[in-house]
Design brief:
The chain has 21 helices and no strands. Helix 1 packs parallel to helix 7. The chain is globular.
């Protein structure tokens, strides 16, 4: 028949992983259970994605376009402000007001993303940035230019909201990888934007600002037309609406800001503070110590930006898979500390440059890993406010750092002092990150457990056999198929159905009238379900059913050890996608 305007949420079965189009389910999902998705988009179920992979690349493109607009206009703004007879202090205040407005509004926009949705906040922020840039280009006086900069800063939560979206739709295993791609998009824009802005300034000093406005508007249109809402947020809102219809109170929310979250926010402040020594003081340091001119300094910083991009794309994913997210973040901060010391105390310019580029690599590893860690320490209903507060802490460090390092450079006994202080701050951040390992890994283990009826076994009545009708079978079967489809599990293939049956046999053990026997059975099954918690994820990935059966029938572990979600992954071969 004709295709409905909203594609049904379920793209598994009937084809290889990452096929060219989404498969249709064999029954009609009610309209309130549907969600608009990308037309003809591919989804790599083997990676546990909540949306087609194309959606994540669209977010990266949005961030690149918006960041490109900002980097195009930034180098021209001081000269543009001078047309309004602005002093050097007024030019500095022009950038400070932007950062201050961003710091104040980041938590507000993050909370708004938890309430109205990630996609709406992302689109609205882009429209606000476009309006702010256009107002800057058309400003008749310096006061209006300040007001327009404040508007642009207040709407500048694009990066934070994009981080929340990517954290929502990716699995724990590949979250760091896609966050790295997102940060690379931002770095790539700032690597090429300033040069493009300098060329556009030949047509007028307000032309780069107008181009920045157009870039933000284009990104907003892309987000509005092609980006699906985060399924995690949608499912959360549906659950709250269902409780409201049933007359139930909303679930009690735990505090979003636990001690580990505050520790990570403190680390982000220290990271922003320490790395600000590079972009605030390195030009003055290189000019005084090594007599470098602006051309050579710009080239060195450009190479550093390329190092950051390459590290995000190729190094961060492998490091997080092998070391873990918290451990990678702590190692990244340690590399920043060592790199800053090498930069400041190297006897040769070449060694000093290696130290600076190592600092950029450490910044890439730490930034990507800290974002992934923060997403794990937050919940679906507070991820926006938590991750935006983390971004706010980093922005605040970038605001405070240049003032402190400028004072140290001007009044210190040596130009190396700002980098010594920054290295010490980065080392403190590394130690603070290491202190959150226990809380993070406890949260990680809890997230990989599958809620199971086994836990409720003592509350079940004594067993009895029941007669059932064809309608009963169709009803429970349709419910199960809808549940699997709307939560993106593959179930139409024979191998996938067999894997599902094996999992259900574990989740629903036999009921006995002997409560002591039931207790022993529950303990064994509970341990087995926890240790095989990866099975439900594997059903969504498309695995070999015979291998799953052997894996599940293997002897349960002698102790009730809690495995992480990736344990045993290598033991189950996946279906070939050739």
């Amino acid at each position: 028949g004709s295709q409905p305007p909203c594609r049904q949420r379920g793209w598994g079965g009937g084809g290889p992983v990452g096929g060219a189009s989404m498969a249709h389910v064999r029954f009609d999902i009610p309209e309130d259970q549907q969600e608009c998705l990308l037309p003809s988009a591919s989804c790599d179920g083997a990676e546990g994605m909540q949306v087609p992979v194309l959606a994540v690349w669209i977010v990266c493109m949005i961030v690149f376009i918006d960041s490109l607009g900002g980097s195009i206009s930034a180098p021209v703004l001081p000269f543009y402000a001078e047309e309004f007879h602005a002093s050097s202090f007024s030019v500095g205040l022009l950038f400070s007001t932007f950062s201050l407005a961003q710091v104040i509004c980041l938590p507000l926009l993050g909370r708004l993303a938890d309430i109205v949705g990630r996609r709406k906040v992302l689109t609205g922020s882009l429209v606000g940035c476009a309006a702010g840039a256009f107002a800057q280009a058309m400003a008749p006086n310096l006061g209006c230019l300040y007001a327009a900069r404040i508007l642009s800063g207040a709407c500048g939560a694009i990066g934070s909201t994009a981080n929340v979206y990517v954290s929502d739709v990716t699995s724990e295993y590949n979250r760091g990888e896609y966050l790295g791609y997102l940060m690379s998009a931002n770095g790539l824009a700032f690597a090429f934007g300033p040069g493009l802005g300098g060329g556009l300034s030949r047509f007028g000093l307000n032309v780069p600002v107008l181009v920045a406005s157009a870039c933000s508007l284009v990104a907003a249109l892309i987000a509005y037309h092609y980006l699906p809402e985060s399924p995690v947020w949608v499912q959360r809102q549906r659950a709250l609406a269902q409780r409201s219809r049933e007359g139930l109170k909303p679930p009690i929310k735990m505090s979003a800001f636990t001690c580990p979250v505050w520790a990570v926010c403190a680390v982000e402040f220290l990271r922003g503070f320490a790395f600000s020594a590079i972009f605030a003081m390195y030009a003055l340091f290189a000019q005084e110590v090594y007599q470098l001119d602006s051309l050579h300094i710009g080239f060195a910083v450009c190479v550093g930006a390329l190092c950051l991009i390459c590290t995000n794309v190729w190094v961060c994913p492998e490091m997080q898979h092998k070391l873990g997210q918290v451990e990678s973040a702590a190692l990244g901060m340690l590399v920043i500390s060592i790199g800053l010391l090498v930069l400041a105390h190297a006897p040769l310019l070449s060694i000093s440059l290696v130290g600076m580029w190592a600092t950029y690599c450490g910044q890439a590893v730490a930034g990507c890993s800290i974002a992934a860690t923060t997403s794990m320490l937050s919940d679906d209903d507070n991820r926006g406010i938590v991750m935006s507060t983390q971004q706010m802490a980093q922005a605040l460090g970038r605001v405070v750092g240049p003032f402190g390092f400028g004072y140290l450079f001007q009044n210190g006994l040596t130009p190396r002092r700002p980098f010594n202080v920054a290295a010490g701050v980065a080392l403190v951040a590394s130690v603070l990150l290491a202190s959150t390992r226990g809380s993070y890994h406890r949260r990680q283990r809890a997230a990989t457990m599958i809620p199971s009826p086994v836990m409720q076994a003592p509350l079940l009545p004594a067993w009895e056999d029941e007669e059932f009708t064809k309608e009963d079978v169709l009803d429970i079967g349709k419910f199960l198929c809808e549940l699997l489809t709307t939560r993106h599990y593959k179930w139409r293939d024979d191998d996938q159905r067999e894997a599902l049956k094996q999992t259900l046999r574990i989740c629903f053990p036999a009921i006995t009238a002997d409560m002591s026997e039931l207790s022993d059975m529950r303990d064994t099954a509970e341990s087995r379900v926890r240790s095989r918690s990866v099975t439900m994820r594997l059903i969504g990935e498309g695995v070999n059913a015979a291998a799953v059966g052997d894996f599940l029938r293997s002897p349960a572990p002698p102790t009730r050890r809690r495995y992480s979600g990736c344990d045993g992954m290598a033991d189950i071969p996946k279906v070939s996608t050739a």
